[in-house]
Amino acid sequence: MKFKRRAMKADVPSTAMGDIAFNLLIFFVILARAQDDSHLQWSPAAAAKLENIASAKVTVLIDRNNKLYLNGQEIGQGQLARGITDLLGSSPQGQRTVLLKVHKEATAMYYEPVIESISEAGGDLVHILEEKR
User: From residue 74, how far is each of 18, 71, 80, 82, 102 by CA, in Å?
Assistant: First the structure.
């Protein structure tokens, strides 16, 4: 004896499909609005009356080509914290000034690790600014 097979009918609730579509829409809108901050361009800060720093044992410079210099000598990012520590030695807290000069076209990818290295070495960070004219 043969039984007739019933056709299976599966209905997907339309509210679930709407929720999925809405979540996908939000996901793609958020991705479309995300921006890459690593190519952030900025101009150097300027101030009307700047205070001169009396003395600094250490100067860190990032040039136009994103090369790193410690007191005028080219150095790698990996050796920077150790180099600053050696130069500062056992200086007391008020005399651990490190001057940081960054080219205006340098990106965060290059200067953020430098700031971190100065902090690791225990230096007092001072940024070089241009005077407003």
Answer: 59, 8, 10, 14, 14
